[in-house]
User: Fold this.
Amino acid sequence: MSGVILGTAHREFVKGNEAICHGALAAGCRHYFGYPITPQNDIPEYMSAHMAGHGGVFLQAESEVATINMLLGAAAAGKRVMTSSSGPGISLMQEGISYMAGSELPALIVNIARSGPGLGGIAPSQGDYFQAVKGGGHGGCRIPVLAPHSVQEMYELTLLAFELADRYRTPVMILGDAIIGQMKEPYSPGLHEPPAPIDKPWATTGCVGRPRQHVKSLYLKDDDIERHNWRLHEKLQRVENAEVRAESYHLEDAKIVLVAFGTAARVCKTAIQWARKAGIAAGMIRPITLFPFPKALVHETAGRADLMLVVEMNTGQMVEDVMIATSHHDKIRFVGKPCAMPTPDDIFSEIKRLAGKTA
Amino acid sequence: MSSSDKQLFDKVVFKRPESLVDVKTHFCPGCHHGIAHRIVADAIDHFGMREKTVGVACVGCSVFLYDYIDVDVVEAPHGRAPAVATGVKRALPDHFVFTYQGDGDLAAIGTSEIIHAANRGENLTVIFVNNTTYGMTGGQMAPTTMLGQKTSTSPYGREFSNDGYPIKMAELLAQLEGVAFSARVATSTPAQIRKAKEAVKTAFDMQIRRMGLSVVEFLSTCPTNWGMKPLDARNRVLGEMIDYFPLGIFKERKQADFV
Assistant:
């Protein structure tokens, strides 16, 4: 990426995966570790070509297990670090993600999701929602999860991910999918300022002029681990209080409110435009942060809407968070398409069907 | 050494390394981790690198390394220390980075990480402490457990037809191009300890000269889980263990592939 002028709408035409790389380099990430897996290979390929030119480190590890631990080491040394993978690789990284959450290490982990379970397939899917937002790793760890629905957001949310990671000393995940990663569209890198570098006095960089310090997650003495758990919990509560992000799309007068994220939400926008033309008051809540989930917005909206239609590229995962967010369970409907992108027709048909019932 | 000691002697010939914290360790009587810790601290002092060192602790009895060696330390998941150390070293290439790993950690769950860090020729030093068992978890069979050795998960003795053979990591790693130095030492006699000190200093020097990965395997004891008195445990190292795990230098690179 070259010639980015902040504050301008200068546009570039790239794949979503490449926009993540642009965002990472703009944010000052100079350490990328990864392992090949479809459908995210554009990211390590781009980084292998460009990281050295930025004075950074690109290293292809022997496995995702090693990858996440290289990330742990470089993060402990105080660097802005990232990796990217897809479902099977993210599963292998869960051990390290838990250690990094426990050790409070900032990093960006990108999941360009494919279909599962197991080897599954390389078709796009949102089947990793539970794994991403409910912790994934052992011991009750949870990390912020961001869900881009455009190439523009692949870039912007990468900047945000590094900012949140440093601010809260936590790994942050971007949950995309094969479509959003491979899709090419114009975006403007100049609209957002990259996060400034941050002082990391906790980093293990050699004890020059200070007592030795440690990056660790083991707490054996007395009730240290209980205190540590409560402290991490309080940190997540601060994240929940301050960092919820969601897009309200034609929500003001909406009677049928879709709830969707990522690629599914992108398709829903077209279906909602068609519904509006057909005289149906449809709208959407699009969670941008999947954790923290926009609970208040969902509950407040569910109170005045006729129906809440959750649309996911899986067999129903985020719909459980919608049910947790609101007590209006009787209004909640679900339409899912695991392992494929729904068409606007699929969703428009469902909206029309529901509108007929509520009319 | 306290200031009053200094007044008693004209010349200091032996003292606690500055990089070794002056506290009692949690190690069992007769365990040789304390000796290995001291040798590592001594080498850090020798090269004057205390403030430029980042250690990587593994899972097992030696995780509390950070309580005893006065340097910054990162804690790694079980077996992953060479990957964590790779991340630290790639981020801080001018720092001195070492891992300190047990045999369950390095030779079982962490074989992939050590082999590939070694194969990449990462400029790291690996201190590998082999006591033929999982100490912290209560003496289960390790990949280094001797044939016939009874452990809590090989109660009838390790049997090759079921459990395979004790793995010789120092020899195995010496085969890899990226390894600059691979040696096996013991700490059961003063002469062995002197040789161990030399081996660790050579290993550290390899990293400083960017020659590649250096590894020193320590044959150590676990009297508690072996069910032995400290002296009997020491004698087991001198007899049965050295018979199978010979001491010596298996690789010593004279010239770097590249600098």
Notes: The CA atoms of residues 51 and 68 of chain B lie 15 Å apart. The interface with chain A takes residues 50-54, 56-57, 63, 66, 70-77, 80, 83-92, 95, 112-113, 115-116 of chain B (CB under 8 Å). Strands of chain B lie at 53-57, 72-75, 96-102, 125-130, 133-134, 140-141, 179-186, 213-219, 248-252. The mean pLDDT of chain B is 95.
